[in-house]
Every structure is written in structure tokens, then in C-alpha cells.
């Protein structure tokens, strides 16, 4: 009997011992899961790997940010920096040098000739020269006789007028060096923007032959929707981006200035023009279409980030926060105005947080294969 009582007591002790050990294991496992869940959204990227990937971080601080009107526009040559060369006479075009778009020319350089030698009206240069020489001869003869009163003063004045008119007409034709036609010269130095005729084409007086541009100053013409009209008077500058490079051009860096903005929309358009002028540093193509960010009054206390800091997933915007030296965290943000360089953050960030501004895509890719066994850090 005592033997059975002893065996029962021993079994009870063993069961109690197993139950306590199992409870301890479940408790430890629960703590591990909670710890893993706390860090499951964190991304490990060592400082060495971050530096190799070019990752850069910026501390968020509220600052001034200009209001922005986004629109589109076009880059045009500034007035006075572009000239259209026209034909002074009717005739056949003959190029004196190879002229293609981009060819550099200097002021006064002969670009082509227009010849009328084999046309019914005859060569206007020869006719102008004959008229000039005849008028000159009559004027010089009369000048010797007017003092002797053989020629009246009235007749002398008329002959002088005829001579001056003939001289001006002849000199305006600028005969070519070989005497075969009229030399067409560039009025300004610059580059050939467009050539409108071909070798052997027949042209008439005043017909455009080619366009020469200096491209030292350019104009930015933005087309603004009528709904933004009330804000046009506060516009002070602009940024713009082109379709052929990834740069953001800031008019403040290009000695830009606002020329004017329209007071009404056009007859065939619902848009109001806003025109700026700026220095061309050689990177902007005249005639190109651009995305424009019109900048107006400053607002204080705005949190903003470089555009490169923003990543997008399924229509939502995210940034990556640096938690410590080797740990990052993805954070959803809501965005406001964008000036092409920086974008306003309406919610999701607060001052003092550190955000990845360069290399955010590398951090995003690092998140895909991240595991954090044994990872510890101090927040």
C-alpha cells in the first residue's frame, strides 16, 4: 500500500515539472515573436554598404518653401538674339559654303548668293550699277557747272538726289565677289538655326532664306490655366525640366527674370502666357518643350525633401528613415507642392528625423532580403 502511494506522488511531481518547463518555453517563444514583430519593418544596411551605394541622409527641419504652380511651356530664343535672313532680290540660290543647322557664322559673313542672270528681268546688280554710275556721272558734271550758273540750283539738287538714291540702291544689293549675283550676309554672329531653301531654289524679294540665332539669352514661355490667374501677380521665378536630361534648371541660377504675364487668355486658347528670360549656359535647346514650376510667395515652417528621397509603391509615397547607423525604416508620407527640386511633405515626418535623400532605391532593394537574427540597437 505504501508502495502505491509513493508511486502516485512521484508521478504527480513529474507531471508538474513537465508542465512548468512547457510554460517557460511558450513564454520565451512569445517574447521572441514580440521582439521580431517590433523590428520586422526595419532594414539593416551596414555603414560600409551604405557608403558604397552612395546613400546620403538629411535631417528634417522645417524651413521656407515657395508656393508652386505646375504647368508646361516652351523655350524660345530671346528677342534680338535671333535674325531671319531674307532675299534682297529675286533669283536662284547658290550656296557659297556648306550650311547646315548648327553651323557657326559671324556677322557680315557671306552665306549664299541669289543670281538673276538668266531671268527675263536681267541681273538687278548690273542694272543698279549702271543706274548708279550714270547718276554719279551726271551729278559730278553738274557740280562743276552749278557755280557758273550753267546748271540751275534746282536741277543740281535733283541730280544730287538721283545720285544718292542710285548709290543707296546699288550698295544695298551687296554684289558677290565673283559678280554673279547678290551676296546674302549674316546680320549677326551665331549659329544657323534653320535653313529654309536648297541649292537652285528660286526665291522672291523678301522671302526668308535661313535663321541665325545667338542663343546667349533664351525665353521661357509658360502656359498657365485660367484658374491660377489670381496667383500670377505673386510669381517671382521658375524652375523647369526638359525631356532630354534629368537636370532641374533654376532661373535663379541662370540670371533669370520675369518679363511679363498675360492679362487675358488668347482667342484660341484657355491659357495665360507667363514669360521669363534667362542666360543659356549651352545646355538648353531653343524650341524645346519643358515642364515648368512657377514659384511665388514663400511659406515658413514647411517640411520638404529632395524629390530623390521619394519612392512610390502602388500609388502610395514612402521615404526611408535612418533609425541608427545601420538600421532604416520605411515611412509612408503624404506630399504637397513640388518645385522640381524639392517636394513638400504634408504628413508622415517631423523635425529632427533623418531621411535618406540619395540612394533610397538601394535601401528599398536591401529590404527585400533583410533578416534580423540577433540584431540589436538602441533607439
UniProtKB/TrEMBL annotation:
Query: Has UniProt tagged this entry with the keyword Transport?
Result: yes
Multidrug resistance protein MdtA-like barrel-sandwich hybrid domain residues are 82-213
Q: Name one GO cellular component term.
A: cell envelope
Single Gene Ontology MF annotation: transmembrane transporter activity
InterPro entries reported for this sequence: CzcB_C, MdtA-like_BSH, MFP_Cation_Efflux, RND_pump_MFP
Establish whether keyword Signal is in the entry. no
Q: Which domain of life is it from?
A: Bacteria
Ranges of residues in domain CzcB-like C-terminal circularly permuted SH3-like: 304-364
Keywords of this protein's UniProt record, alphabetized? Transport
Q: Which GO terms describe its biological process?
A: copper ion export; plasma membrane copper ion transport
Q: Name one Pfam family in it.
A: CzcB_C
Give the family from UniProt.
Belongs to the membrane fusion protein (MFP) (TC 8.A.1) family.
Which PANTHER family does the annotation name? CATION EFFLUX SYSTEM PROTEIN CUSB (PTHR30097), SLR6042 PROTEIN (PTHR30097:SF4)
Q: Which NCBIfam families match?
A: RND_mfp (TIGR01730)
Which protein is depicted? Efflux RND transporter periplasmic adaptor subunit
Which lineage is the organism of this entry classified under, starting from the top rank?
Bacteria, Pseudomonadati, Bacteroidota, Bacteroidia, Bacteroidales
Amino acid at each position: 500500500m505504501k508502495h502505491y502511494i509513493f508511486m502516485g506522488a512521484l508521478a504527480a511531481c513529474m507531471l508538474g515539472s513537465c508542465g512548468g518547463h512547457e510554460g517557460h518555453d511558450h513564454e520565451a517563444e512569445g517574447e521572441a515573436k514580440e521582439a521580431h514583430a517590433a523590428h520586422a519593418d526595419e532594414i539593416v544596411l551596414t555603414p560600409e554598404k551604405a557608403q558604397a551605394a552612395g546613400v546620403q541622409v538629411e535631417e528634417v527641419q522645417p524651413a521656407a518653401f515657395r508656393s508652386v504652380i505646375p504647368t508646361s511651356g516652351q523655350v524660345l530664343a530671346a528677342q534680338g538674339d535671333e535674325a531671319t535672313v531674307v532675299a534682297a532680290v529675286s533669283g536662284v540660290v547658290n550656296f557659297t559654303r556648306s550650311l547646315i543647322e548648327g553651323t557657326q557664322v559671324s556677322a557680315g559673313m557671306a552665306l549664299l548668293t541669289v543670281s538673276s542672270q538668266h531671268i527675263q528681268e536681267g541681273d538687278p546688280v548690273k542694272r543698279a550699277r549702271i543706274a548708279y554710275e550714270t547718276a554719279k556721272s551726271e551729278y559730278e558734271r553738274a557740280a562743276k557747272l552749278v557755280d557758273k550758273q550753267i546748271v540751275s540750283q534746282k536741277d543740281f539738287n535733283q541730280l544730287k538726289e538721283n545720285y544718292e538714291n542710285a548709290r543707296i540702291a546699288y550698295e544695298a544689293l551687296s554684289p558677290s565677289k565673283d559678280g554673279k549675283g547678290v551676296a546674302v550676309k549674316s546680320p549677326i554672329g551665331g549659329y544657323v538655326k534653320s535653313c529654309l531653301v536648297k541649292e537652285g531654289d528660286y526665291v522672291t524679294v523678301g522671302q526668308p532664306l535661313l535663321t541665325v540665332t545667338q542663343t546667349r539669352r533664351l525665353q521661357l514661355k509658360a502656359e498657365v490655366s485660367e484658374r491660377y490667374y489670381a496667383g500670377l501677380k505673386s510669381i517671382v521665378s521658375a524652375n523647369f525640366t526638359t525631356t532630354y536630361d534629368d537636370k532641374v534648371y533654376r532661373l535663379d541660377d541662370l540670371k533669370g527674370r520675369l518679363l511679363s504675364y498675360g492679362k487675358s487668355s488668347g482667342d484660341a486658347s484657355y491659357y495665360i502666357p507667363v514669360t521669363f528670360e534667362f542666360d543659356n549656359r549651352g545646355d538648353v535647346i531653343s524650341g524645346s518643350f519643358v515642364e515648368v514650376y512657377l514659384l511665388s510667395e514663400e511659406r515658413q515652417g514647411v517640411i520638404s525633401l529632395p524629390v530623390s528621397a521619394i519612392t512610390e509603391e502602388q500609388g502610395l509615397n514612402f521615404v526611408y528613415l535612418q533609425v541608427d547607423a545601420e538600421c532604416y525604416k520605411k515611412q509612408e508620407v503624404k506630399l504637397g507642392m513640388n518645385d522640381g527640386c524639392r517636394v513638400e511633405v504634408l504628413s508622415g515626418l517631423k523635425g529632427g528625423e533623418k531621411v535618406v535623400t540619395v540612394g533610397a532605391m538601394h535601401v528599398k532593394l536591401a529590404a527585400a532580403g533583410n533578416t534580423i537574427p540577433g540584431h540589436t540597437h538602441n533607439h
